[in-house]
Model the fold of this input.
Amino acid sequence: MKKLRHLLLSPALLALLGCSALAAAQTATPPAGEYIYQGGSGQLRVKADGHFDITTIGANAHTCALDGSIVRGKAKIDDGACVVSFALDADKVKVSTNGEEQCRDNCGARAGFEGTYTRPAPGCTDKAVTNTRKVFKRQYDAKSYAAARTTLAPVLTDCDGTLDWITKGWIRNDLALTQYKLDDRAACLKTLQPLAEDAALSDDGVKENYPPADAEIFLPVVRATRTNLKLCRG
Done:
């Protein structure tokens, strides 16, 4: 059975699950900035004038893309057929719509954009994570393994909720290999544990378990994990 990165829930079930949370939230225009979609699979960008755009990616590289202007916590898309609502809850923005079908034209079949968007911590923005990985690589290449570990390890713990699954997989492998270089095989195995089940599959097994586009980008991570697990198991 193919694994889907996102599950689309019915509007009625979404309303039931979100009822208590939305009661504490305030429908309004979110503060200007960037917010990361749940699982790191997209972004909400809001400008000071209320203009916004959303891009998300779902299973098999299906995407959502929409933009508009937020007025009193709502935005009308597609000549008003699709109404997007924004509710603030601390550093999160909960995005909902007036119905899946009304907003379906903005998404591929396996993608959605309703859900929670979180303002990332300063060290967890896309730019910050990219810069941290560059610093890590310089330290690793210089064989400063202890410093490299100190640089990279916090990204996994601090940014877990906003990293996309592929980036997280590569960071796990980079950190695990660093731990191996420091002769900490137990830590290496622990870091790779979330990837071990997929790494135990053959390439064909991965292709059977994931949609084609997902399998294509995930296989390099799986192959790296197999190699690093062998190293750390000795």
In short: The beta strands are 26-27, 33-37, 42-46, 51-57, 63-69, 74-77, 82-89, 92-97, 115-118. The mean pLDDT is 90.
